[in-house]
Amino acid sequence: MGTNLVLHPIQGSTLYQIARTHGASHAQAFWWGLAYSTQFELGPVFSEAMIGNVPPSPVDLVITPFAGFYLGRVEEWLEPKVGNLRSKKLRQVARTLLVGKFLAAMLRKE
Fold it and tell me: Are 104 and 14 in contact (CB under 8 A)?
């Protein structure tokens, strides 16, 4: 249950942040996350359902994109506040707590 309620929203938030980094609007980022999550669960290529390890879960189809979208929005709202912290060390630690933004930055190709 922890995977569905904790890790899947983080995955959705990371997808949201990646889409926003590439210029997507909030709505586009949500739909992109929904499409990715659906492909990951039910898609014909490299999905959990195709591999047969995990039966399709309606919870995953809902929680990942919706909770991820809201977590991503909260992270976007918090980021400027974290950036204004006086202590550089505290700022660095706080940025790692913005998990979706942190993972999206790690995955970014620069």
Answer: yes
